[in-house]
Structures are given as C-alpha cells and as structure tokens.
Amino acid sequence: MAFEKILVLDDELIIRKSLQEILRRKRYSVAVAATIKAAEKYLDKDPFDLVFMDLRLPDGDGTTLLNKISKKPDAPLIVMMTGYATIESAVDCMRAGAFEYLIKPFSSNQIEIIIHKAENYTHLVNVNRFYSQSDSLETGLVGKGKATRQLRNLIQKVAPTQATVLIHGESGTGKEVIAGEIHKASARSGAPFIKVNCAAISETLIESEFFGHEKGAFTGAVDRRRGRFELAHGGTILLDEVSEISPNLQAKLLRVLQEREFERVGGNQTIKVDTRVLATTNRDLAKCVQKGEFREDLYYRLNVFPLYSTPLREKKEDILTLADHFNDSLQRKHGVKIEGFSPAAKSCLLAHNWPGNIRELQNTVERAVILTESGNYIQHSSLGLLHLDGFEPHVEESASEPYLSHTWGDLFQGEDGDKPDPESLIPIDELEKRYILHALEATGGNRSLAARHLKVTSRTLRNKLKQYQESQIL
Fold it and tell me: Are 51 and 9 spatial neighbours (Cβ–Cβ below 8 Å)?
C-alpha cells in the first residue's frame, strides 16, 4: 500500500532538501518544516502517512512531539533522525513509539528501504484491523458428491489465473466459501482476502467502503480512511451480492475493473491497485441487464469465468457429510461432546428440502448440538424439521438402535429372542405388513424415504398401503 503524504521535520536545510528530493522522485507529496510548531500546523491540517523527525530541534526535543503524535489513533509512522546516536536515545525513541531510528548521514537507498518497510507494515496493520472487525473466513468446500467434485475441478483451473470470477447461486449455498477456495488456491493466497457485502451497506456509505474517503469528505469523516480495494492490494476482493449496488457505483466499479485505479471519496489523488476481483450474486444478472437494472458492460467484465453454486436439494449426497462437518466444528464451539446423529435424525436430514441451503443446515445442526446432552446422539426431535409430508415425525429413538434394525429374521423371533415353534410362525403377508409399518415408523411416515429403504418403488408402497386400508388391516 503506497504512501501519499510524508512530512520532513529537520532544522538543517540540507537534510530537508535532500529528503524532499528523494521522496518527490518517488512521487510522494512532501511537506517540510524546520520547527515543532510548524510541523504541528501541518499535522493538524492534513493526515500524513510518515514523518521523518530530527531528535534535536530549535524549539524542543523531537521525542516530545513523538510522544504526542504516537498516542493518536491514526498516527503516522515516525522515523527519528539524529547525528548524535546513542543506545539510550534509540531505546527511548522506540519505547515512545518510533517506527525506525535513522543515523545521519544516510543514503537514498536507506530511505527507500525504510519507506518500503513502513508501507508493508501499514498495509498489514490495516488488513489486520479489518479482519478483527469481521467474521473469520468460512470453512473449506465440504462434500464428495458429483456436483461438488465438478466444482472443485473448476476452482483448480481458474484459481491460478488472474481471471475475474462471478459465482451465482441461491442464498446460503456457500458462494463465499467458493470464493475463499479460489483465493487459497491462487498465487495471492498469502495476501489479503477482503470481503464486502454489497447488500448489507447503505447506498450512501458503500462508495466509501469500496474506495475509502478523505478527512472531511462528508459529515462524520473525521479521518482519512482506506477502502476495501486498497486493503485488498496484492490480494483478492470479494464483492458479495454485487447485483445490489447502485447504477452510479456500477460505473465507478467498471473503471476499477478496466483501469485498476480510483479516487477516494472527497479526494483527487488517483490510487492504483493490484487486486483480483471475485463477485457473487443470487440473482440472474443476465435478466437484470435486460431489465436495465445492471450495466451490460459491467456484467461482461464480471462474468469472465462463471461458477454455479448448486443448491443443497440438488446434491443430497453431501447432506450427511456437511452435517457431520458442522457437528464436529460446533461441538468445539460450544464445548460439548456429541456422538453423532441417530438413524432417524439422519432420515430427517435427508428428507428435508433445505430451502435455506447449507446455511439452514448449519443453523439446524447448531440448534441440535445445543439441545443435545453431551455423550448422546442428536435425535430427530432436536432438529426441529418438518418432513416433506408436512408433519413432525413421532419416533421413539434409542442412541444405540440402528435404523430399520428389525430384519426379516428378527421379525420371526419370539419375545425372548429364541426361534419360535414352526407352528406359531405368522403368515408371510402379516410379516410383510409388519416390516412396511416398521419402515414407515422409522422414517416418520415419509413414504418416499421408506420405499427407498424397503427397496421398492413409491407406487408399490402406496398400493400396499391402499390394500391394507381397504381390507381394514390398518
């Protein structure tokens, strides 16, 4: 993250001129002062990124100003300079908050090294400050089903490139997770991954969130602030729900994608960034373009490499894998030990249609983990789910009882577990009926799921139940 304004405070003219020339060659805006009083006027008026300050000045000691500046929340970095270096003064300066201690005379190469080090440090501080105010990154992509495997393959292909990626899909399908996987598999993985939720920020503030603002740019802008694009310099920025930004901001975003440059709100300094852009949307952007709600040129800039985040109902083979994953992580979060999901709880998870997708599944599992006593299995009643048939299953469960535990052989056995007398064997039709009713009970009345476990078609099961009703067996 490049600095913009640097202040040089030294009573020696040759030092001021020398530093000014070195810094202006690097295209920094430079202010010079010979006294503490003059320097304070600059600091009160404008925000500076870096200050080169002499230790001995005509109107006081530089450490006095150092102590005053370093206590401010958005203080510039301070490089103390002296021609009379001692270990004691160096220690005092560093304890007071100095970033570096520079001994005169110095070379232009030393100055360049200090500035490079200071810029990297400032960028790291700003990124860490952003992360401390944000949620941690989502967990990785979980699942082994066909759709998930295909998605992983596409991520591996696009991640090493610099291509802009548009991830579309329903809410709660894990679009942010996909973006995180792209960043982690890219050459930028060691650089910041910055997210901005375009739908959660008001229209009046989102431009400042994107590009930052200068001090006094609007009411409440008491300090200069760097935006998310600057924080993501060298790394990746995720524009979550990009379809929600206003037409005016769409034009400015298009410029960033094309030119990789922008100005802060209230500023005229052009800032160049090297940032890879990923975007997500739960809307059909092509239709938004047709309706005039989204710029066509911006759509094509974003949609260089489209990825689709499949809804959970279309990849049911991943449901139990995801549920186990959330169970493991949420146990650690809440400090409990859960054995897993009971058979009927698994049936409930598989039978549910998951309109809220993976986010709904995670919330459901968290609720169940909280309700379940340590050492037990999660029961279906703790999930709070309704089956597709529209009612809550009423199943007496045991943590140790497997799903459909009664086999055909079990149903032949007597109450004491011994083989019954052959003359007491029940008719095969009665045995079939008992097995069907057991399957329906275990699945909470879900006929589709019961048919799948019985290895018959839903139509066959429906005909059997109709037969039982007509003969008044049920």
Answer: yes
Enter the tokens of residue 353.
């249609």
The CATH number of residue 10's host domain is 3.40.50.2300
Handedness of CA 404, 405, 407, 413 (dihedral sign): negative
Query: pLDDT over 90 for what percent of the chain?
Result: 51
Which residue do the tokens 């759709």 mark? 147
3-state secondary structure 343-376: HHHHHHHHHCCCCCHHHHHHHHHHHHHHHCCCCC
DSSP one-letter code for 472 = T
Beta-bridge partners for 341: 378
d(CA 274, CA 272): 7
Phi and psi torsions of 298, nearest 5°: -70, -40
Quick check: 40 pLDDT over 50?
Answer: yes
Q: Token pair of 170, please?
A: 């329903």
Judgement on whether residues 283 and 417 belong to the same structural domain of the protein:
no
Residues 275 and 343 in one domain: no
Whether residue 156 lies inside any domain: the answer is: yes
**Residue 161 corresponds to which tokens in the numbers above?**
């490139």
- Name the residue with higher pLDDT: 395 or 86: 86
> Could you give phi then psi for residue 130, rounded to 5 degrees?
-65, -45
CB 371 within 8 A of CB 408: no
341 with 304, same domain: the answer is no
Phi, psi of 190 (to 5 degrees): -85, -5
Please state the pTM of the whole predicted model.
0.62
Amino acid letter for position 414: G
Q: Which two tokens stand for residue 236?
A: 């990746």
Q: How many domains does the chain have?
A: 4
